[in-house]
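Regression check, iron/sulfur cluster case 422:
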Amino acid sequence: MQVTPWDVEGVIDYNKLIRDFGMQPFSEVLDEIDEPHILMRRGAIFGHRDYWRIVNAMKKGIQWAVMSGFMPSGHPHFGHKMTMDEIVWHQRAGGRAFVAIADMEAHAVRGLSWEKTREIGLEYIKSIIALGLTRESVIYFQSKSSYVKDLAFELSAEVNFSELRAIYGFNGDTKLAKMFITSIQAADILHPQLSEFGGPKPVVVPVGADQDPHMRLTRDLAARASIFSFEPIEGGLRIRSRKGKVYLEALSEMPLEVRFYEEHADIFGERDEIEEFVREIEVKLGGFAFVPPSSTYHRFTTGLTGGKMSSSKPESYISLLDKPEDGARKVMKAFTGGRATAEEQRRLGGQPEKCVVFELYSYHLIQSDEELRQIESDCREGRLLCGKCKRLASELVKNFLEEHREKIGEAEGMLEDYFIIM
Ligand code: TRP
Ligand code: SF4
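Current build output:
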């Protein structure tokens, strides 16, 4: 198995991925969430980093944000729909939403022209609006946001080649633009915390597991680009300054107990509270005081034809822009977890865990847990055969695509009311 932002190969073992990358299992925070999304409940979202920051922010009613991005290199499909649904869910749960159209990435990595990235980018924007993103969001093309480009340059001062090589496997042939994109993405993720957007806050980034290297780099940069760093100690936090002692002295205005030492200060009290106070002080001193971003990781979408989904093989995925009949037809040809013959299927039952059609039901088409469980057990016990099952799924896909088309049409007329940096 190989998982990098530019290459996903082999059979994915998600538990191994959690271990290798050092993520946390999402099941650990699931119970803390009010009305979790189906992608959370049904295991599509399998991992996270620091999601507790978001849970806390929701509970305490402090401001937080959700941000993610889309590379406009091919049509938006059901894999992108996962990320879009996650952004919309978090927005409804109280997060301020930021959506990046990664045109700089598409241009640098995939060689797409700016005209093309704009045209495709708008399709993504219309789709996410059709899926429920409200006007209280910031949508932008990377190449048009000075917040992002300026911050990216600032962050790039903290990264050297050895680090990029270790994280991404870059080598002497890697183009500078491709390297710089890593700073751009870090800036995408951190810029909701700039003072122009209300200052430091928890930000959750819903992504596919392949994006984790970017999260690791960004979380490191969040710390490196900030003045104060935190380390838990008995009863509080130890604070160090990256810019020398003068800055430590500013902590004396804390309303909590502070003990000063040569190289650090120890502050006693509730950790969240200390962090918040220290960040406030840092902002006054002109620092970024970034909160390390949180993330959630969803599974890769299985290609309809079995193997992986590929934008160069339109039969391998359902695009959100497919004609409803085409989408329906693709479902009918999909690879299932069924047996070779009807007789065998009645005797042994199907294997929904290996079935692309079941994945569609579970992640996209069926909201009711009751209904989903019914299909699952009918399949497993051989009462449901794939032909009938696929006809139902293809009907649901057709309805979805019809409705989505309509909403895209409406979104087109509403674009002007949205805040879009383009
Ligand atoms: N690199 C992401 C992709 O290929 C797109 C992206 C750009 C992104 N900026 C982002 C994702 C910020 C999450 C956060 O899909
Ligand atoms: Fe998949 Fe449905 Fe066939 Fe079961 S019956 S394997 S869920 S298509």
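Comparison notes: The two ends are 38 Å apart (CA to CA). The mean pLDDT is 96. No diff flagged against the previous build.
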